[in-house]
Amino acid sequence: MGEQPIFSTRAHVFQIDPTTKKNWVPTSKHAVTVSYFYDSTRNVYRIISLDGSKAIINSTITPNMTFTKTSQKFGQWADSRANTVYGLGFSSENHLLKFAEKFAEFKEAARLAKEKSQEKMELTSTPSQESATGDLQSPLTPESINGTDDERGTTPETPQHPPEPRPEPSQNQLPFSHSSSSINKHWEAELAALKGNNAKLTAALLESTANVKQWKQQLAAYQEEAERLHKRVTELECVSGQTTVIKSQKTELNQTIEELESALKAKEEELERLKEEVESASEFPTLKESLTQKLQVRLMNNTIALHTTLGLRHLVSLQWVYICVCWFVRVCLCVYKCVGVFCLCVCLSTQCLAKVFRPLGFLHILLCYKVQLK
Fold first, then answer.
1. How many CB atoms lie within 10 A of CB 124?
2. Which three-class secondary structure string do you get for 85-127?
3. Is it the case that residue 28 has pLDDT exceeding 80?
4. Is residue 204 part of a domain?
5. C-alpha to C-alpha distance for 128 and 142, rounded to whole angstroms
6. Is 44 helix (H, G, I), strand (E, B) or coil?
7. CB 166 within 8 A of CB 146
8. Average pLDDT over residues 248-257
9. CA 198, CA 133: separation in Å to the nearest integer?
10. Is residue 207 included in any domain, yes or no?
11. Where are the alpha helices (DSSP H) in 242-283?
12. How many domains is the chain partitioned into structurally?
């Protein structure tokens, strides 16, 4: 069988129901690959389809097979060896026509191969003595010599008993002549030689017939073994074709497993953390009480600090007022001192001016008086 398929397509595979012989039974849940293979050892063409590692079609194309198109996308053929009818549902009519064309092509090739093999078997099965006995020149007809031509035309598979020689004519009916007696002696010698050859050929034929039966049994056993091995090889070839897909799927599954393991590890760590939190949750009441007490103390301290701050702020404001008042008093005292000094100066200057202008006053008074007098 070829390592690579000659032609491949995808279709849904069906088989006829063996009980009713009317209904179709699907043999695949989805469309599978249907391929033509050439078996070089047996010189035959096969249609093979696998669903995973299971062979759902293993049909040998014979010259009497016919692929029938029953609808636009469905075709069928009968396999007498498998005692079933296969049906294929295609996705388009073009795929169906291509499959039918290849079926007819390989069917014709199977017919030619069968004819050649039959011709070869006929040539090899003819006994070698056939040519030797057929070259005898005789004026008599072949039927008069024990029917040897009929025996040579038979195949070695069916043993034939040598026919009885026909009775020779009596000497009373023949003319008593020297030539006739010599001819009779010659043909008697030829007849005896042919009888001996016939006996030898009969023995050889019986022996070859026994050998043929044994060879047929061995050939049937070999054919069964070869069929089983071819089927196994086909399955292995189809499985090996899926090795790349399986490897890629295995790689993806390994990656998925690694991701799940990492996620599982993270979940386990989170679970351990939650367990620790649950264990530490029993300490929360006492911790809450202590924190509550600390909070109350902090609140009291904050209240005291607030009041202290307000008091300090008030004290600072009072200090600023006191400082301002003190400075105001100082300024006032300075002003008072300055005014006192000014007043003192004014008084002193007034006294000095009075001392200076007192005589002038008296003169003015006298002048005024004189003027009044006048």
1. 7
2. EEEEECCCHHHHHHHHHHHHHHHHHHHHHHHHHHHHHHHHHCC
3. yes
4. no
5. 19
6. strand
7. yes
8. 82
9. 10
10. no
11. 243-281
12. 2
Taking CA atoms, 340 is separated from 325, 335, 343, in Å, by 22, 8, 5
Q: Do 8 and 33 meet the contact criterion of CB atoms below 8 Å apart?
A: yes
Name the token pair of 23: 């209904």
Q: Which residue in the block uniquely carries the two structure tokens 């996620």?
A: 263
12, 86 Cβ separation under 8 angstroms: no
Inside any domain, residue 248: no
Expressed as residue numbers, the domain containing 19 is 7-124
Residue 328 domain-assigned (yes or no): yes
- Token pair of 132 as six digits: 């030797």
Question: Among 124, 139, 159, which residue terminates a domain?
Answer: 124
CA pair distance 209, 184, nearest whole angstrom: 36
CATH code at position 75 = 2.30.29.30
Question: Any bridge partners for residue 76, and if so which?
Answer: 68, 87
d(CA 75, CA 79): 14
> Tokens 């469905």 identify what position?
74
Task: Work out the number of other CB atoms within 10 angstroms of the CB of residue 99.
Answer: 22
Q: Which residues contact 201 (CB under 8 A, 6 or more apart)?
A: 127, 129, 151
C-beta neighbour count of 44 within 10 angstroms: 19
Domain boundary among 91, 109, 124: 124
Extract the tokens encoding 66.
């016919």
CA angle at residue 274 from 270 to 278, to 5 degrees? 170
Query: What pLDDT score was predicted for residue 361?
Result: 62
Spatial contact of 32 and 8, defined as CB atoms under 8 Å apart = no
Separation between Cα atoms, residue 7 and residue 103, nearest integer Å = 10
- Is residue 119 within 8 Å of 167, Cβ to Cβ? no
Cβ-proximal residues to 59 (8 Å cutoff; 6+ apart), any chain: 46, 47, 48, 77, 79, 81, 82, 86
Mean pLDDT of 321-336: 83
Report if pTM > 0.70.
no
